[in-house]
Amino acid sequence: MKTEKEPVKTAAKPKVAFFDFACCEGCQLQVANIGESLLDILGAVDVVEFREVMSEKYDKDYDVAIIEGSITDHHAEERLKKIRARSKVLIAYGACAAIGGVNGMKNSFDLDEIRQSVYGKDFKLFPSSPTRPIHQVVKVDYTINGCPIYPPELIEVLKHALRGLPYTVPDNPVCSECKLNENVCMYERGVSCLGPWTKAGCNSWCVNNGNICYGCRGEVTNPAKNANDVIGKYNLKPELVKNKFDMYNKCKEGDINVNRK
Amino acid sequence: MNYHILKKDELDGFIRKLATKMKVCAPVAKGHNNFAFEEVSSAAGIALDYIPTILPPKKYFMPPREKLLDFDISGDKPRDTASVDAEKLAIFGVHTCDLAGIQCLNMVFSEKPRDYNYILRKENIFIIGLECSRYCDGSATCALVGNHYPNGGYDLFFTELGDKFIIHVNTQKGEDLVEGMGLPKASSAYLESLDDVREEKRAVFQNEIGVDQKTLAGIVAARQESKVWQEIGSRCVSCGNCTNVCPTCYCFDMADTINLDMKTGFRTRTWDSCQFETFATVAGGENFRAERAGRQRHRINRKFSYPLDKFYRSFCTGCGRCTRTCMAKISLKDTLKALVAESRSVSHGTGQYSSSSLPLSGDESMVKG
Ligand code: SF4
Ligand code: SF4
Ligand code: SF4
Predict the structure, then answer these.
(1) Taking CB atoms and an 8 Å limit, are B329 and A189 in contact across chains?
(2) Number of domains present in the structure of chain A
(3) Range of B92's domain?
(4) Is A183 close to ligand 1, i.e. is its CB under 6 Å away?
(5) A233: which chain B residues are within 8 Å (Cβ-Cβ)?
(6) A134, B126, B128, B204: which one has the fewest Cβ atoms less than 10 Å from its Cβ?
(7) How many Cβ atoms sit within 10 Å of the Cβ of residue B355?
């Protein structure tokens, strides 16, 4: 995925704002985990809105809007469109914003059924819509994948955005990074892993830490047409892999109707 | 040069002494029959009986990610400072297939323009080989390329003889080390035992494909339109595992990263893979190898056909790593056997593979080396 935008060049430091929609706000929390580089970031930009750490509101245009969370009702849709109109550059931040993430599981059910189970008998009073990632609602300039986002990638994307350069999300399977890190493959340990279908860019973060890849960065553009051979090697059922993939990637179905680059 | 003797129970002392002179790396068990070269300080953690490590020793010669230079673009003219990190290192326990892999890379990186980072690092690496007396597993094809025997490329080479190692000394650096440690010279009886070991191996290791390297190169070159490429291409997931683990794959990608000050930055190179979707994409978006079948064909050509013309040797060392690591169960042995079988049936007039049976796109010359 390639994204490009005019350089954000203003005399003052670029105004950056964070917004959250349907999400756990865990990705915003990752900003706090950046460590030392956080000071460098704060030296390079002016954070004007960030609900998790500040209460000020800002009423001018944003140079960079960082959007967390997915869109699950018409209020969210309208609010997002307004933010887009006020922003020079818009970044989809984290799996919920980038690909729908776990919120997409909602789309596996009948909408009324879901509303009823959440709101009870008065569910008609609470409008709701199928989950959508940000790019299915407004134009997205940069995408930072992951649940949570991988902090070094946030820094890279920010630098690209501030310089107006395109950022390329690697379109190779996570295995490509996992191998460079010389991990023992999860399949060798007898555990199934979504690495062979998931976009790299996280430096195989989960596997390095003894976990499997859950597919949180979304599917590579051209996945293996026949997954059966990967899973056949280890006697897995294709449905198992598909179900695992749906945990983060259910909203992918919505991409068929959206012109996504 | 000379042969020396080291008792097996003295190996620990040998490694400890060596570790006082330089960093020592050796194969270490990672569980699930996986091994990796890692730093050791004694013989305790070393897996003497191991199958090829996840990554080959090439990781020490050309690290997976390497900084090449630092730059500063704040002044009138950009400034840069080259960066090379070449620490003194001994690699212990390198199998003969991996010795061959290092020899291949040495040839590639010594070609002009010479790669100084590689060469400086190589100068600082002391290599201690270790002989295999039997196959690692069924994925290996070392006998096909003659790499089940040592063919140089080391400072010292260890072969087990009962409760001892007989050590072949191949370089002055090697000689200085064993002399410095006071290892006794091997008597002629040991040399005879070594001959016996080699003779026994002759029966164990047999050409796994059944044709010699030259014939195989001819077969691969003639099978460019084979249906074998389509078959393996339809299964491949383009993960690049097969090339990343290959001891003779050396393609890399370079990238400049700017620091947050937007003035200084650094240049890195990272292993790349011809199996990745965009590897052969050029400016304007044309992809010379958009199909997996074509990429797989390229990989096999790059091991068994092209290098025989360019470097007069196979660039497959027979280590079997690509087969073990493949997410799609694509076996190098099966692929080669299928090509040979197909070639036989075609030459007997039973096959009908025409060029139209394989719609591969683009030019298949050696894009990106
Ligand atoms: S552990 Fe997962 S990401 Fe790593 S190589 Fe295996 S399948 Fe790929
Ligand atoms: S092609 Fe496969 S068997 Fe041959 S050297 Fe490379 S990884 Fe080893
Ligand atoms: S390891 Fe197997 S699946 Fe991965 S790129 Fe190589 S041939 Fe394809």
Answers:
(1) no
(2) 2
(3) 3-56+85-204
(4) yes
(5) 327-329
(6) B204
(7) 9
The alpha carbon torsion through B352, B354, B358, B359 (nearest 10 deg) reads -150
Would the CB atoms of B327 and A187 count as touching at under 8 Å?
yes
Residue A116 lies in a domain: yes
pLDDT in tens, A72-83: 999 999 999 999
Query: pLDDT class for A179, splitting at 50, 70, 90?
Result: very high
Provide, as residue numbers in chain B, all residues whose Cβ is less than 8 Å from the Cβ of A180.
55, 64-65, 244, 270-271
Nearest chain A residue to B233 by CA: give it: A224
Last residue of one domain, picked from the residues A94, A128, A163:
A163
Nearest CA to ligand 2 atom 6: B246
- Within its chain, how far is the Cα of B72 from the centroid? 36
Task: Average the pLDDT over A183-210 and give the result.
Answer: 95
Q: Which of B178, B204, B230 is the last residue of a domain?
A: B204
Q: pLDDT tens across B6-24, in order?
A: 999 999 999 999 999 999 9
Q: Within an 8 Å CB–CB cutoff, is residue A221 touching chain B?
A: yes
* Residue B301 in domain: yes
User: Does residue A4 belong to any structural domain of this protein?
Assistant: no
ipTM of the modeled complex: 0.91
Instruction: Identify the pLDDT of residue B366.
Output: 37
For A58-111, give the DSSP string.
Answer: --S-EEEEEEESBB-SHHHHHHHHHHHHHEEEEEEESHHHHH-GGGGGGGGS-H
Range of the structural domain that residue A185 is part of: 175-253
